[in-house]
Design goal:
By secondary structure, the protein is an alpha/beta fold. It is built from 16 helices and 17 strands. It has 3 domains: about 220 residues, Alpha-Beta Complex (2-enoyl-CoA Hydratase, Chain A, domain 1); about 130 residues; about 70 residues, OB fold (Dihydrolipoamide Acetyltransferase, E2P). About 40% of the residues lie in helices and about 15% in strands. A 5-stranded parallel β-sheet has the order 5-3-2-1-12, sandwiched between helices. It has a 5-stranded mixed beta barrel with strand order 13-14-15-17-16.
């Protein structure tokens, strides 16, 4: 009995000590239980749709949505993400804004076929709630930027682990996506993403954005003001008709017209297509001397490509090779048939396409696009361009001499060479150096020399002994019998009035 009483006394004393210490431990800042987390409210759901590279326009729209949500005290921000990484942008300000947001930031990678790679995977991992849609993937997160090879995979892993700890996910497994690409089921089972729509048996993610928005209801999300319980949906209907629907306004944010244009031009493949199309159209304009539509369109394409290249790691060598290829094609177009320069141009075109972006980046032109563009450029330069030039400056041989004496108009200044419009068709033309013709002046065709018209002004034409036609006065070979038959110098012309036989019988002069 004494031993029993002593044991009972010790147990009671320990109980009182534990009871006294427990409140003190609770006052030390232990996390509040989930049931005690305050509601996110019903200030509205802001959905940001981000597709393509995380370039300045896409990053700015995400930061703008977070600022708007905090200012308007929205319930939650949902980032609908489908991106292969970041380019020409520092993600640190965006990550800092996500950490300091008093509104829960959530991310859904979807729909099916979408992915979050590079910096996009890091942004997704930093979200308080992360869902990977059915058929979507996340990773690899390294490198974070597509235009450089920094930061390293170890640095990226450290960032992923830090963000996972902050939002309460598995930090060790989150490092997995630094170098690997995983699907929705693996992401959920390994704790890389949250289980929103799937079950433990079926780990697939939400199939649609709408499912994600209504299914995050009831989940607790970490914010700068502490954990909050998300409230985004309510149950309506009865029995088999029961379903969830949003309980507040859902507002969508996407790029405006200017932002969308800049984002599209930043696409490496699109910029590559623009530079080739633009240079080809400008060369077409140069050779055909058309009314300017091709040249104007080509200039717009080149300007658009330059805007895109300003955000991309373009190689000077690659651009130089593309310009060399255009020069090579131009030489043979001028010659009228493919030759050595066409071969040089083809090699330069392929090499320039492969080396267009710096080797230190993970950007490159897809093989299928390279084959299509190289093939289309060759077809245009070797077949279409010569045909266009020939049809522009040639007419049927039959009846060509009938153009002599025709009136026309100078399309450009002729001094001594240029282009004229005769019978509605353009011709290469040449005039005497002493009589240059201004653009728009009326001309007369004086001779046809192959595919070149000899022209002269309608009035005030000059003659050059080197250009006189055979058989005309002044031509040494034109001193023939007919040439000597000048007015007043024929047989009858010698019988000048007053110089005939009777005329010799002058008054007072009698024959002896």
């Amino acid at each position: 009995m004494p031993h029993f009483r002593r044991l009972l006394t010790i147990l009671l004393g320990a109980g009182f000590i534990i009871a006294g210490v427990a409140p003190l431990a609770g006052a030390g800042g232990a996390p509040a239980p989930i049931t005690a987390a305050p509601s996110s409210g019903r200030g509205g759901v802001i959905v940001v749709q981000v597709k393509g590279l995380l370039d300045p326009p896409n990053v700015e729209i995400m930061m703008g949505a977070i600022r708007e949500a905090n200012k308007a005290r929205a319930s939650v921000v949902v980032i609908n993400l489908d991106s292969t990484g970041a380019v020409d942008v520092d993600l640190k300000p965006l990550l800092k804004m996500i950490r300091n947001s008093r509104v829960a930031i959530t991310t859904w990678i979807g729909p099916s076929g979408s992915e979050a790679k590079g910096g996009a995977a890091v942004i997704a991992a930093a979200s308080a709630i992360l869902g990977v849609g059915t058929g979507a993937h996340i990773g690899a997160a390294s490198p974070m930027r597509r235009d450089t090879d920094t930061p390293s995979s170890s640095q990226t892993s450290a960032v992923l682990a830090t963000e996972a700890l902050r939002v309460g996910r598995n930090s060790s497994e989150s490092e997995l996506i630094s170098t690997k690409r995983i699907n929705a089921k693996d992401a959920t089972s390994k704790g890389v993403s949250d289980r929103i729509c799937g079950t433990r048996k079926n780990g697939d993610g939400c199939a649609t954005l709408g499912d994600f928005v209504v299914r995050i209801d009831g989940h607790v999300a970490a914010t700068a003001r502490g954990p909050v319980r998300i409230e985004t949906s309510r149950v309506v209907g009865e029995g088999q008709d029961r379903r969830r629907q949003p309980n507040q306004d859902v507002r969508f944010r996407k790029l405006g017209l200017v932002g969308q244009m800049e984002h599209t031009l930043t696409n490496p493949s699109f910029a590559y297509v623009l530079i080739l199309v633009g240079l080809s159209l400008i060369m077409f304009e140069f050779f055909t001397i058309s009314i300017g539509l091709a040249g104007g369109a080509g200039a717009i394409c080149v300007i658009g490509a330059c805007i895109g290249f300003s955000h991309l790691p373009v190689s000077g060598l690659g651009i130089g090779l593309l310009l060399l290829s255009m020069f090579g094609f131009a030489v043979d177009v001028q010659a009228g048939k493919p030759a050595v320069w066409s071969g040089i141009a083809t090699v330069a075109l392929i090499a320039g396409s492969l080396m267009l972006y710096d080797a230190g980046s993970s950007l490159n032109v897809p093989w299928w696009l390279l084959i299509v563009m190289v093939g289309a450029t060759l077809l245009f330069m070797i077949t279409a361009m010569p045909i266009a030039v020939r049809s522009r400056f040639s007419t049927p041989t039959v009846g060509r001499e009938g153009l002599i004496g025709e009136m026309g108009e100078a399309v450009v200044a002729i001094d001594p060479d240029g282009v004229v419009l005769v019978r509605g068709a353009p011709w290469r033309a040449r005039t005497n150096r002493a009589t240059p013709i201004a653009a728009g002046d009326v001309i007369r065709v004086s001779e046809v020399d192959g595919l070149v018209l000899e022209v002269e002004p309608e009035e005030g034409a000059a003659r050059d002994y080197r250009e006189m036609r055979k058989g005309s006065v002044g031509d040494p070979e034109g001193l023939n019998a007919e040439g000597l038959n000048a007015e007043g110098l024929n047989a009858e012309g010698l019988n000048v009035d007053g110089l005939n036989a009777d005329a010799l019988n002058v008054e007072g002069v009698e024959p002896i």
